[in-house]
Structures are given as C-alpha cells and as structure tokens.
Amino acid sequence: MSENGCEYRERVLTIDTMNPNVKRVEYAVRGPIVQRAVQIERELQMGIKKPFTEVIKANIGDCHAMGQKPITFFRQVLALCSYPDLLEDSKFPEDAKSRARRILQACGGGSLGAYSTSQGIEMIRQDVARYIEWRDGGITSDPDNIYLSTGASDAIVTMLKLLVSGEGTSRTGVMISIPQYPLYSAALAELGAVQISYYLDEDNCWSLDISELQRALQEAKKHCSPRALCIINPGNPTGQVQSRQCIEDVIRFAAAEKLFLMADEVYQDNVYADGCKFHSFKKVLFEMGLEYSKKVELASFHSTSKCYMGECGFRGGYMEVVNLDPEVKVQLTKLVSVRLCPPVPGQALLDVVVNRPQPDEPSYDTFIKECTDTLAALAEKANMTQDILNQVPGIKCNPVQGAMYTFPRIHLPPKAILEAKEKGQAPDMFYCMKLLEETGICLVPGSGFGQRDGTYHFRMTILPPKEKLKIVLAKIKEFNQHFMEQYS
Length: 488
Hints:
The protein has 17 helices and 16 strands. It has helices spanning 20-23, 32-45, 72-82, 94-105, 122-135, 151-163, 182-191, 210-220, 244-257, 281-287, 290-293, 326-337, 344-354, 364-389, 414-422, 427-439, 466-487, and strands at 2-3, 6-7, 56-57, 146-150, 172-178, 194-199, 225-232, 260-264, 298-303, 316-322, 395-396, 405-406, 409-410, 441-442, 444-445, 458-461. It is globular and about 65 Å long.
C-alpha cells in the first residue's frame, strides 16, 4: 500500500499502542467546552453572526486574562532583571533596582537566561523560607526543604510520582476531595494510581467531615493501599475556607491512618468571608506539638499564579516538605533534576512575592494599595456573585469564602436530563454547552470536577471586571429562566 505516493508503513504509535493511562486523562478546565469556545471565537472573527459579540471565558482562574492588573513592583523588578541596562534608568525606584541586582547576582553569569540549580536558586529558597517563617509566626523553615517549581502543579505531580507504587490491591491510593481540581484526577490517571474520592458537604458550605474521610478510606482499603490525602484550602472549585479545628482533625486523621498529607494552599491570600481565616497546615501541625510535628509527613504548595499576583504565565511556585525521609529526599532532588530547573523568570517573580517592599522603601505605599484594592475587588465580586445567583430560581450558590470561583448547584428538569443523555452528554455539560452557544459565556460543568450522583453544578470564576461580571451574571439568569421554561 502507498500513501501520497510513498510506501505505507504501519505506525509504531497508534491509539491502540499508546500509553493507556494517557487515554484515561481528562482535564475539564480546558476540555471540550473550552475547545468549542475557541471555535466560536474564530467564527465571530470570520463574521458569522451570533446572538452575542464576544466569548467571555469564565472557565479558568487566569487573572490577567480577565482584566486583573499586574502589581507594578513585580513587573518593575522583572523588567530590570530581563534587561539590566534599565538599572541605569532613573524612572525605576531604588528598591526595585536593589531587588533586581540581588536576583541577578544569584543567577549564573548575572542573567535570567542561565540555568539554576534543579531545586531552585539558593538565595530565593532562603527568601521563601523566611517568608514561611513570617507567615507562620516564627515556626522554623529550612531552605533545604524548599523546592521551587513550575507553578504549584509541577510540584504536586512530582510528589505524586514519588508516592505511587505497587500493583493490584497494593497499588497506591490517593484521597482527593470531590469536587476537586482536575489536576489531581488527571495526574492519578496518568500515573496509574487509584483515586479515592471523599465528598465535601455541600449543605454545610462545602465543609470537610472526618467521618466521610473515614468512610472513603475504609472502602478503599478493600482494593488499594491508601497512602496520601490531598487537601485544597481555600477550595477549588468550591471556594470554602477550612477552619483551624477542621485542619487539626485532618492532621490527627492522617497521623492515625499513616497518610502523607498534601496541602494545596495556592489561594492562601484569597479569603473574603467574615469569620474565615487562612491557617497553613504546617503552622497548625507544629502548634499541635511534637506528637504530630515530628511524625506527620507533609508537602505544602504555593504559587505566583493566584492571590493578588495572578501571574499565571510566569509559572512560579514552591513546595515545602516536612518530615520527608532523607533517602526519599535524595530521590526527590534527583527527580527534579531531570527537568533541569524551574523557569528562572518565574523564580525571580517568586522572590519578589516573598520579599515584598517594606514600610521604609519607596514602593511600599503603591504596592500595599494595589494589593489591597485587588483583594477588595475580588471580595466584592465574590459577594455579588453569590447574591445574584441565589436570586435565580433553580440555582443554589454557597458563600464564596475564598479562592476565586463559585460552584453553584443547578436543579435541572427531567426533560433536560433525558435530552442530555440521548446526546451522550452529562446533563450539566448539556446545560453549559447551550449557555455557551446562546450567550457566549464559557463555564465548566460540575461533572468535570466530580459531584455526588444526581447533582449538577457549574464552576465559574469571579475574576471578570465588576461591570463585565454583572453582564455575565445577568445573562446566566436570563438563560436559566428560558432553559427551565423550555424543559419544564
């Protein structure tokens, strides 16, 4: 046989011969509905008429893409590091210049273009450790336990790689919350690990119940070896903030069941609701005494992509490990060395995030105002989102206590559920796809994050500018009314 005049040879890599674990990977945040949104954008550019003039992507926590302004000080330092000739420019404040000089001195050849050590630039790891000590009220942090990473996601996947082993009933099981951020289910599928789902309590503002952890664990022990427990706090996609008591209970549970704790804390500055406060797992662990602080293995993660920074594209982040076996730590360092190093510009950005302007420096007032305004705007939009959605018949929205998303429940009519199933779609995918086609608003169906059987949700970000967010919410309200009338 021939193809285009060339002798045809059977391909080595086909859908049947490829890694079967990859075929199990799903990532709803950039899944089919987002791909359709991109197609619609192209159709609009081609002049194809739609009932709307733009696609609003409220599907992903991409802060700057949704209009959040970069923090001036961060961009000044990065500009100086990227083009050191600007250090002679009088337009830049002296504290930005001093940060840039310090970062460049720590880089090979004084350039961001040089590789760093695999664990990350030592000076920046020292700054991260000092930041963690400041955040946690003086609890010691060892720079040697800090691993800089390509965003938090890269570090999370790296730690999961270390944890996964065994075959059959001895295969590693990892406990993840439902709803969950799809990075976790996707990574576990790729690694061939066993996903152990525990459900958050929607009726109690997505709280975490230890009895549910116990239920999920005991059931999982029948077919796998549970070894790790993942917590996202503040929550994604659910926006809850765990209480200190809850964190203590989780730590006791992990200690009793000999589970490795993974604390995804990338939204730690995004806390809005009265009475809610972020508590780091490490701080609580050490305040619980030696019985726990010397025993429980913990990896915690932070990122430059969220909070008031929103610098998603720079891919900066870090992981801190606590009580990691020294021999495993050697293997971790070896594993990260395979990828050479995290992006050095991302490391530089992380350094100024953890080494921010001080009250006696010229950039301090502007920096504080920009941070405060950004977080205040997010808090206002969180309240506005839950208030407006709860006015829509058929939608119930829990308070958005933190992070930058809401995960409201939608009560779909039986006719809509039936039509969705006839089309081979999850009912909330059917709802979200119709919303996209009729309004141009791109949301992510709850089925992409996991949810209790018989319940349906969508995730949307609160990031659009206030006036645009009002438009999004008004369109959802109008669409939902027509949808319910059509299928009632």
